[in-house]
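Reader question, answered in our methods column.
A reader sent in the components of a multi-part assembly and asked whether the whole thing could be modeled at once rather than chain by chain. We filled in our standard form and ran it. Here is what they sent:
COMPLEX SIZE: two components
ENTRIES:
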Amino acid sequence: MQTFGISSAGVRQSRWAGAKSTAVVRMATTPAAYAGRILAAPVDAILHRILAAITAQHPGLATRLAGLPAAAVLIEPADLPVRFLIRLGPGGPAVNVVPPGADPRASTRVRAPIQQLIALAEARIDADTIFFSRALTIDGDIEPVLALRNALEGEAIDIIGAIRSVPVPLAGSAGPFGAMAIAAVRLAGTLAASARAALLAPALDRLDQADRTLQHIAAAIENHGGAARSQRRARRA
Amino acid sequence: MELVCPAGNLAALRAAVDAGADTVYVGFRDETNARNFPGLNFSPDEMREGIGYAHARSRKVYVAINTFPRAGDVGPWRRAVDDAAQLGADAVILADIGLIEYAKRRHPQLRRHLSVQAGASNRDAIEFFRDAFGVSRVVLPRVLTVAEIAALNASLGVETEVFAFGGMCPMAEGRCSLSSYVTGQSPNMSGVCSPASHVRYEQRGDDLVSRLGTFTINRFPGREPAGYPTLCKGRFVAHERTMYLFEEPTSLSVAHMLGDLAAAGVSALKIEGRQRGRAYVAEVVARFRRLVDAVSVAHAAPGRDVEALRRLAEGGRDTAGAYQRGWR
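And here is the structure of the entire assembly that came back:
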């Protein structure tokens, strides 16, 4: 079972129960970063439940990743405003969402469209082929990424199924960033059919809402301006 | 011709069998085989399950134990041979003379194939392995022309297996120390060429830079297809020109010349790539299955399969390598 928390020192800790040691990623402790971590916490809880479901079904995953030195891999979906940090090494695998504006230390960055990232995680496409074609960008140390790829390949994991199996709280309870990230995680389950549209839906909804708000404000300004003009005309008369 | 296909894990083995492989070759999860990458390969239990899966479908499994034992520490290599025999492997693929002798003495009924890592590329060498160690098959190094392979097959009395698709190793197998010069590890002793622990890729603007140890070995501009970070496919500056000195990022493919190899008396075609994903394995095996079946009934090779295989190649290009020696 996996647990996580934020210590009083502002250090995020993620621990794999039963492991001999604890992996720690230190992050900046500015007020903005602290706020970001609070916003990210509900998403992390979901990610941890998804990872727990996967590792319970695939105990071989930890075996294949055993013995790796500590490393953090930053996953950047090229078409989403959300990033994830996967930590490997002593303490077992862990995954966290990266708060907006945070700059976590990572040994490797992996960047590709979200559909390709999920297809890679489920071993439905060959990583070398899309890397050769430059559709997949890898920046940094290769060993943790290769180990992760080989472990996922060996276990034939149903990522979509795992995402769908975990109950997700209402997006609105987690603040604007949390809502976006939770929606992304939840809607990833529909990727097989219409991933991109589904994942962008929350952002589009918010844009629509923002647009309506702006129209309301613009109308209010216009009304206020119209009233002022009427008053000026009345005074001149 | 027998289609011998790679698998780096159980899922890939199943994919290869389901796609039409006659045989799957595999390795244990340690330094006893030449694809010793993190997270790859089989535990003994997985090996047992994989062999069971293949045998239930009348397919075979060969176990590669094709690195050279460390001086004074032959134990892991001998255990691998014992495990392969006990788990029901159909053959072991060996390179080291001492290990072949051990396999012959301890497991005389277990077929012994000579790995490409043994570098046996002439009649005298192959006949020595045949006569001294009862080797049933030799995997030929990628240095021979089709005509030379035909001449060997005419009088050897040993099955020959040739590489048909995948990694294009331009050096003399079993004798290449390029990786060792930079990292201290080589495919011969450690089972890894350019070990992942020494490799970095760096994105610099639009360019992709590959580094091995402290050396920059290639820079792929813009959208130029990338390749593996091996020194033999590094781009070097010589005579004030930046160029590939040994080999370009490319894959070997004989998809268009299977008829020639069949006529040359080749017994088996080997697809390289135990380090590749199961999606790759499934596609390459399925396409080669169709190609081999077409050759066996004297049909022309399906052109769409030949073209599709090129898209999976390193650097997006393929070559017939020494089989045709197009550079001469």
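What stands out: The radius of gyration of chain A is 22 Å. Confidence is low (pLDDT under 50) at residues 1-28, 189-204 of chain A.
Send us your own complexes using the same form.
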